[in-house]
Amino acid sequence: MPVRPLSDERQSERASSLRYLLPMAIPYQRCPKCNHQPLPAEQALPAACPACGIILAKVGQKLPPPAPQPDDETQWPDDDALGNASGRADPLLFWARLALLAALTVWAWVLIRMDYRSGGIGASFLHRPLLVFHEAGHVIFMPLGHWLGVLGGTLGQLLMPAVMAVALRLQNRDRFGAAVGCWFFGVSLLDVAPYMYDALHPQLMLLSGATGEAGGHDWIYLFSSAGLLPRAQLIGGLTHKLGALVVLLSLVWAARLLWRQRQAIAARPTPV
After folding, report:
1. Do 198 and 244 fall within a single domain?
2. Which of 32, 159, 189, 263 is deepest in the core (most CB within 10 A)?
3. Total number of domains in the chain
């Protein structure tokens, strides 16, 4: 009697069933699902993990990723509750951050109250490092054309704290550091606002030692090219308000993170 050949579907099902009956060539040292160890030395059917009960011979099927282990030093938990990458609440780090938050709050109050109409923030300490990134921005964006080269000064001093905040949040998973980066971004907006406001009736002394177009005023050129010069003071005032809002929201974010860290420290069991 001739033997009827099996269909492709039937052959696939048969091969799949035989795979589960074959002994494993390399036994697992720990469970691929729950990381439990030790496991049975003989892992052919029907051997299973003692902890989660998964059949070890069937692990060729797609399994969910193992749950993160809180004591594993290779894990990087979010920084908002515990405060450091090791997963342990650190009181010293908490108090250091609290002192920094207090200093930034007082500093923000001083900077926001400075009159942007007269360029008062230009006398602050932070104006000098921001000016370095401003001038570097001109050089970086110069190859992209004259207009972007002029705008690049403002872009440079805004991108520096923005990149810092993003890097701290995504690379280091440091939410408090990201909040500080956002604080610097808001301060940079406060620093740009007087420059914008001054474009309509130039009074600020620029690095060239002159004022207005004679001194190479970026925003006179930028607003004029966009037809917005008559609204320079309005835009400058709105930029100051936006900067103040970003600074305040950053402080609220940082304070909320410290509150959660304080709760984590308080919930830590007291050593006997």
Report:
1. yes
2. 189
3. 2
DSSP letter string, 101-157: HHHHHHHHHHHHHS-TTTTGGGGSTTHHHHHHHHHHHHHHHGGG-HHHHHHHHHHHH
Helices marked H in the chain: 8-21, 79-82, 91-113, 127-141, 146-170, 175-197, 218-226, 232-266
State the CB neighbour count (10 A cutoff) for residue 271. Answer: 4
Which of 65, 28, 61 lies closest to 47 in space, CA to CA?
A: 28
pLDDT digits (tens, 9 = 90+) for 16-71: 444 444 444 567 778 888 887 888 877 777 778 888 888 777 775 444 555 554 44
Let me know whether 164 and 253 are in one domain. yes
Same structural domain, 31 and 161: no
Q: Burial of 136 by CB count in 10 Å (0-12 exposed, 13-18 middle, 19+ buried)?
A: middle
Is 3 in a helix, a strand, or coil? Answer: coil
Structural domain for 160, as ranges: 80-266
The pTM for the full model equals 0.67
Whether 71 contacts 88, CB under 8 Å: no
270: its two tokens? 């007291």
